[in-house]
């Protein structure tokens, strides 16, 4: 008896051979040598599997990791670097903190407070959640921290509004929280890691550091505010639903002892996250310390039973696989090969401002696909002076074109916060993948031309 293939599996079966043929039997084959070509093929196949959802996500992760080892494409410390990365332990910490927020009732209390203002309509609910996420970007510089704190609250809001697990409404609320506290905040200077990499490398290599207000004025109106509006409209279209106003849980008294204790732990954790530039302790180890404290008998608020039932190991395997792909990209130098070739292929010429702007922005986005978001400033910043001479743009303008690239997420594996948010919420990464693709296309078609006009109006080009 044959088992019929799902549509996603049929798509993957068609795409993988097609893209492999293009990589092997076109001039693109000359770009890579030996194991580089095998690495490129595996990376491409892994991207297709994750993008289509042809296999369960943790199985796709294991397929990539196992084949990378069997083909000896990289050492074990590279292939399995995701399991030792700070991102992996941040996810573990986030899962534990999320369980504590839910089980103490703190998430329900916060959701009750906000839901009464948002649940009158679905559009108002999604808009309010996205807006809350963007506002968090101004006060909390770590997108990972924003995800860890906001996702449990968003889940409680979804429950309060009557959205069952797996419903359109729950997916819409989770995606609004995850994307809202991440993508528009790239337009806020210290809010995400790629921003800080760009600033640090620009300062060390070129001696220039953008000011907060200067950066905000240039990027936030289009890549922040308008992208948030676009995000809201897409979610409302893809995940329509109607909130059912629920009777709030009676919380007339003050915080319970367990809630107060959790608040103290969370505020202390947040304080350490916000001051990491002073004590230089990684956010992952701060989060792990908080998670350990929450698990201690008699001190914490997460029982062994809850831990065993609700900490999903498959989500950690998914992130390990995606980070393994990113490490393989860097180890095999696929990103460097693509970056250099892209620069040579670009039609850059002084006086052609529109062509130069679109070319640099799209090139940064493409490099983000093969080198992840953090790889965009790492790849392009050293080349900024050369690009400035090729385009006639100022050095500062060339550096700022990177922001479009690392703020446009085409595939979820490019962004650690998005990879964290979906497992924390118990939502398939496939939903985030679909939203990423649609938002990326509309960002290029709608926001990129508007961004160019805004730059012109401000006199940057």
From TrEMBL:
It is a multi-pass membrane protein. It comes from the Bacteria. InterPro entries: SLC13A/DASS. Keywords: Membrane, Transmembrane, Transmembrane helix. Its main location: membrane. Pfam families: Na_sulph_symp. It is found in: Membrane. The chain crosses the membrane at residues 38-55, 89-110, 122-141, 173-197, 217-239, 260-275, 281-299, 311-334, 354-380, 392-412, 432-455. This is SLC13 family permease. The lineage of its organism: Bacteria, Pseudomonadati, Pseudomonadota, Gammaproteobacteria, Oceanospirillales.
């Amino acid at each position: 008896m044959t088992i019929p293939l799902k549509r996603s599996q049929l798509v993957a079966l068609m795409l993988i051979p097609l893209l492999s043929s293009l990589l092997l039997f076109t001039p693109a084959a000359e770009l890579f040598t030996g194991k580089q070509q095998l690495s490129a093929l595996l990376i491409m196949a892994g991207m297709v599997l994750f993008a289509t959802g042809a296999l369960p996500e943790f199985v796709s992760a294991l397929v990539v990791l196992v084949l990378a080892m069997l083909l000896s494409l990289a050492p074990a410390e590279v292939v399995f670097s995701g399991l030792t990365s700070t991102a992996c332990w941040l996810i573990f910490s986030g899962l534990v903190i999320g369980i504590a927020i839910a089980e103490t009732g703190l998430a329900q209390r916060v959701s009750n407070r906000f839901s009464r203002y948002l649940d009158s309509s679905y559009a108002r609910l999604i808009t309010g959640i996205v807006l809350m996420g963007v506002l968090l970007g101004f006060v909390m510089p770590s997108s990972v921290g924003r995800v860890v704190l906001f996702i449990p609250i968003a889940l409680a809001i979804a429950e309060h509004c009557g959205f069952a697990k797996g419903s359109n409404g729950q997916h819409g609320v989770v995606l609004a929280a995850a994307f809202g506290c991440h993508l528009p905040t790239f337009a806020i200077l210290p809010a995400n890691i790629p921003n800080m990499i760009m600033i640090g490398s620009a300062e060390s290599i070129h001696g220039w550091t953008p000011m907060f207000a200067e950066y905000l004025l240039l990027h936030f109106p289009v890549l922040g505010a308008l992208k948030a509006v676009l995000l809201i409209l897409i979610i409302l279209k893809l995940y329509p639903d109607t909130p059912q106003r629920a009777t709030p849980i009676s919380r007339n008294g003050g915080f319970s002892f367990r809630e107060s204790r959790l608040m103290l732990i969370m505020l202390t954790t947040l304080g350490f996250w916000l001051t990491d530039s002073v004590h230089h302790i990684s956010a992952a180890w701060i989060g792990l310390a908080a998670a350990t404290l929450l698990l201690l008998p008699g001190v914490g608020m997460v029982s062994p039973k809850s831990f065993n039932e609700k900490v999903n190991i498959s989500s950690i395997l998914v992130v390990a696989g995606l980070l393994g792909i990113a490490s393989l990209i860097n180890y095999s130098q696929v990103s460097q090969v693509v970056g250099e070739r892209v620069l040579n292929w670009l039609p850059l010429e002084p006086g052609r401002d529109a062509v130069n702007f679109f070319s640099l922005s799209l090139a940064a986005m493409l490099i983000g696909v093969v080198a992840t978001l953090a790889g965009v400033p790492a790849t392009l910043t050293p080349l900024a002076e050369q690009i400035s001479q090729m385009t006639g743009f100022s050095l500062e303008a060339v550096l700022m074109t990177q922001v479009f690239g690392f703020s446009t997420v085409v595939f979820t594996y490019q962004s650690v916060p998005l990879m964290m948010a979906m497992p924390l919420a118990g939502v398939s990464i496939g939903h985030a993948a679909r939203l990423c693709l649609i938002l990326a296309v509309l960002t290029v078609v709608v926001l990129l031309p508007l961004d160019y006009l805004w730059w012109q109006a401000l006199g940057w080009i």
